[in-house]
Amino acid sequence: MDRKLRxxxxxxxxxxxxxxxxxxxxxxxxLAQAPARxxxxxxxxxxxxxxxxxxASRAEVYLRAFRSDGSQVTVQQGQSPRxxxxxxxxxxxxxxxxxxxxDQFTESLTTYRLTDGDVSYYRSWPNSECSGRPELGxxxxxxxEVRKVEKQLxxxxxxQLLMAPALGCFELQETYTVGPGGTRSYRxxxxxxxxxxxxxxxxxxxxxxxxxxxxxxxxxxEFVRRYPEHKPPFSDETAxxxxxxxxxxx
Length: 250
Prior knowledge:
Blueprint: H1 7-27, E1 40-50, E2 58-66, E3 72-79, E4 85-93, E5 98-103, E6 108-113, H2 116-124, H3 127-130, E7 137-141, E8 144-152, E9 157-164, E10 170-178, E11 186-197, E12 212-213, H4 216-226, H5 236-248
Parallel strand pairs: 6-12
Antiparallel strand pairs: 1-2, 1-11, 2-3, 3-4, 4-5, 5-6, 7-8, 8-9, 9-10, 10-11
């Protein structure tokens, strides 16, 4: 399996993940705080398909881990332009009320403050998405009962989720389909390879003390400084928008 991930995608992932999460929080209504969730670690694989092909054009293994307090981390690895393996992760620390993107390519931290409302949101969602809804289709995946949730995300983008109520409605499988179908569309799937129940290793949530705090535009500039042979991860306009979100959550 090809585990390479272009460095621009890794850096973009850490920045966009933080920006996107706050956008969603502002758009969705706040839900009542849920009980402590079951802690677990899931090893995931993401695959991308062009058109109606059954052969993946790209595959990437990554990790997601959840603590009983609702805190979570997503960890990815990729190669720099110099073929160095590096790690990027996004740590959602609900106890510390912060979300931190950790970028090993530039040794950067990008920290976003969480409000009490943000914390309540993350602790309660997506638990309500599949619990207590017998009308949803049911099946089994990796030994867990799952409920099928389908969403139209606008335009020609369709999302299908297989959520496990026993894991707080965690998505054991996600399928994004974009386009009208056939050769003019593409599909992205994310699926759990296996799940390990229990509190995840503390090291997954560690924030390097030696890394520098940087805004998204500064992360991009630092990446170009270290890898001048590579173009910036994102445009000046995109970086400016990310910086505005970053400054609003300081």
